[in-house]
Amino acid sequence: MVIVATSADLRRDLMDDLVQTSFAVAAVLTRVGAAHDLSLTLLRLLGILRDRQPKMAELADYLVLEKSTVSGLIDRAETRGLVQRSTTPEDGRSVRVGLSTKGRRLARTVEAEIAGALAPLTARLTPQDQRQVHTLLARMLTETAP
Amino acid sequence: MVIVATSADLRRDLMDDLVQTSFAVAAVLTRVGAAHDLSLTLLRLLGILRDRQPKMAELADYLVLEKSTVSGLIDRAETRGLVQRSTTPEDGRSVRVGLSTKGRRLARTVEAEIAGALAPLTARLTPQDQRQVHTLLARMLTETAP
DNA sequence: TGACTTAGTTCGTGATACCAACTACTTTAG
DNA sequence: CTAAAGTAGTTGGTATCACGAACTAAGTCA
Prior knowledge:
The structure is a homodimer.
Chain A: H1 7-34, H2 40-49, H3 56-63, H4 67-79, E1 83-87, E2 95-99, H5 101-122, H6 127-141
Antiparallel strand pairs in A: 1-2
Helix pairs in contact in A: 1-5, 3-4
Chain A binds a DNA duplex through helix 4.
């Protein structure tokens, strides 16, 4: 008897992998973040602010969170000296958020630690396979044109 | 001039992909879960209980959470009729947790919806590439022998 | 039997997240 | 050029999630 992996099987296997990967990576991020008193959300915040100075509403879009949630998030981050709010000249209502020096330093540290913590995982693949996964995951994550 | 992608570049690219994938998948899970009033943690709980009836302490291990956190989690899930606590005959202290019929039905529904929500992602890859990613991710997630 | 150990729960606290209501600026209509 | 409508962010109230410390009940063992 020949066992045939159907297209549905394949999809399901891949889906399981993706979910497993998501949790495994999230676990790493949570652990590294916790060492610096950073929640997963705060970690994402630092990541986003690394190369942007968005307004609150844009930040809410990036994070897929309510504006009110972001307000509280930035409140706490600001209290800790990680970010700064600044008013914009063109619109008296809107607020721009940026990393402070301390926040930028922390972001760099954490990024390095995350890389270190993920290395044991990626090290299980040969360089060729790493390239392959990179190519395919990147393709998968690419937004399809609307 | 020839641009060479070094091994470090490759690792970093792959790391970025993994983090992106983690967030993208988590976003899908959060969205699908929210439609059924399930947090990411509750979603994981249902997934774990699909083929297990662990004791509280084992559950805490699976979820990598404190026992006290799991207590509250199960409290709420039990109130909603999704899981049941049962005492074990061999040890009067320990408690076994299992899905209720309602919980099992919900788990199946949600699983199907997650598959549906992830399909647009996986559909961007050819079946061969899906197989490839599956193979490589599975290898990456495999525990290295201690 | 009495002293440890173990399994779960309870309690208090803080972070995260939502929604609804609010304030303060901008824009637009008349 | 003002009054109405809209927009950006904040505030306040509530529920969940997560932790650690202290507790209860049940098992172990000396």
